[in-house]
Design brief:
This protein has a single domain (about 1-100), classed as Glutaredoxin (3-Layer(aba) Sandwich), CATH 3.40.30. The chain is globular, with a radius of gyration of 13 Å. Strands 2-1-3-4 form a 4-stranded mixed beta sheet. Helices cover about 40% and strands about 25% of the residues. A hairpin with a 2-residue loop joins strand 3 and strand 4 (about 75-85). By secondary structure, the protein is of the alpha+beta class.
């Protein structure tokens, strides 16, 4: 997964990564919010999910201490990260400056 992941986050489009776990209640709460963000941004951004239990090397690389953790990448660089349940308006506030039509 690491090679493919590196290609995805190297995109010039913003990529919002949701580091989550199947057993995590707050992670489940984020699903409709992230779906709404994906609908709102359309093709201008990507939203992907990474299961920390299935991808421990990625979780370690990005020092994921708790789930859910959202990290916003663009061109391979971390622009923003936040742990816990994050409302849509906060996510959109972080994404907006990086969206291109």
């Amino acid at each position: 997964m690491t090679g493919n992941f590196n290609q995805i986050i190297a995109d010039t489009k913003p990529v919002l990564v949701d580091f989550f776990a199947e057993w995590c209640g707050p992670c489940k709460m984020m699903v409709p919010t992230l779906q709404e963000v994906a609908r709102t941004t359309g093709n201008a951004a990507r939203v992907i999910k990474i299961d920390v239990d299935k991808n421990p090397a990625l979780a370690a690389k990005y020092q994921i201490q708790g789930v859910p953790t959202l990290i916003l990448f663009k061109a391979g660089k971390i622009l923003w990260r936040q742990s816990g349940v994050v409302p849509k308006n906060v996510i959109m506030q972080q994404l907006q400056p990086h969206l291109t039509a």
